[in-house]
């Protein structure tokens, strides 16, 4: 239970993740949060979420919402990645706390601008790396603490998102009534961001670069961030490879990261098999410790830890640890609340999130086609 303060929340972006996860979770956590406003450029999305969730105050732009008299303590930003940094800064300058879906920003300069806005305005900016708040991840870190790591495998090879979202039980709907100008602006920003990150020559040298950067920076940020949480930052990316799908896409990626004393092998892809194969496995001399993530879009699938080891008497042991059935989206909420209300420290800060862009740049720099 909370200490009595209820945070007023505005949700910006009423698409898939808002309908399936964030708005329902906020409504259930009514001892801590109250959703007071919705914002989206799609009027059909606004109408659906307003009626479905009983939220009357709706807006079609962030400045319009911030200028209103609707009470807002915290803004959940769930929009297209290319607009994240701008919208975070707008909210921070209005003295609103922010929960931002990953990736937080698109370029190193954007991360720095967001961090300045956080410091200048004294607000919490909480990046939604929900996998890092899974209880099983903390159990993994406890299990390997003090042990000499020999090798690590990091994998995120998952079926197409629609296989899982269609079974979420939330009856979400998708709309395309977006102004044409929004799509044009998004494409413009995507191109400019890629040039800023890679340089103009490299950005334009291969049509797969834009798609690859986007995939690594979005899906890839889940496991790259969790890898950092467990192991810290690698010294370098030794080598990286990618596939050539349909000419301008690259759905399959591998990379090898060098840490002090060991290497971490990274695999990431989206295929057409309805199986969510996302895990981190740490090998030591006498144990193998693996956290296995299930899709967050289907409630009640536990995130488990498997510990395989040789016992002192020579027996082989396999232990499965299931700390909780509570999903990481829900586990984030009390931590976010305590950061805002009590000033408690939290790990998914803008400064922390910047390291994912550093990692993606490492991968692109080590790329061998």
What features would you describe in this structure?
The protein has 369 residues and is an alpha/beta fold. The chain folds into two domains: 7-129 and 332-349, 3-Layer(aba) Sandwich (Rossmann fold); 131-329 and 353-366, 2-Layer Sandwich (Dihydrodipicolinate Reductase, domain 2), CATH 3.30.360.10. 40% of the residues lie in helices and 25% in strands. It has 13 helices and 14 strands. It has helices at residues 16-28, 43-53, 62-66, 84-93, 108-121, 135-144, 161-165, 180-198, 200-205, 208-217, 219-231, 328-341, 350-365, and strands at 7-12, 33-39, 58-59, 74-77, 97-100, 125-127, 149-159, 236-242, 252-259, 262-271, 276-284, 287-293, 304-310, 316-321. The strands form two sheets. An eight-stranded mixed sheet has the order 8-9-10-7-11-12-13-14. Strand 13 (304-310) and strand 14 form a beta hairpin. Helix 5 packs antiparallel against helix 13 (350-365) and helix 11 packs across helix 13. The longest helix is centred in the middle third of the chain and has 19 residues, at 180-198. It is globular and about 65 Å long. The model has no long low-confidence stretch (mean pLDDT 96).
